[in-house]
Amino acid sequence: QVRLVESGGGSVQAGGSLRLSCAASGFTSKTYYCMGWFRQAPGKEREGVAGLYTGGGSIYYTNSVKGRFTIFQDSAKTTLYLQMNSLKPEDTAMYYCAADPVPCTWNIADFPTWGQGTQVTVSP
Q1: What is the three-class DSSP state of 109?
Q2: Shortest CA distance to 21 belongs to which of 117, 121, 122?
Q3: Which of 44, 37, 9, 33 is nearest to 114 (CA)?
Q4: Rounded distance, CA 4 to CA 16, Å?
Q5: What tens digit of pLDDT does each residue of 88-103 get?
């Protein structure tokens, strides 16, 4: 069973940086996954932030984070990262990582496995 554990959230001032980590376990060795970072601010719907395929290929970012955030994985493909630079107050949210075996739709509702989330708070 796939398990995801996020870490690295915290409180920073606008313009600061944070790196989120998502430790994955239980991956099947011969299966590739879509892995993504999602966020949910109070009173708002969960939205996709960035995503990639563990087997390599296309990487996706939502427009509001392009040029500021970078998603990447370690060489063992067991940890997913989100490097967040030039943070803005509107980036404040609970951040989650999620995984879905390929092929995937990148539809939030279709991701079967989620971490518990890590809070990011950006002050003006």
Answers
A1: helix
A2: 117
A3: 37
A4: 26
A5: 999 999 999 999 999 9
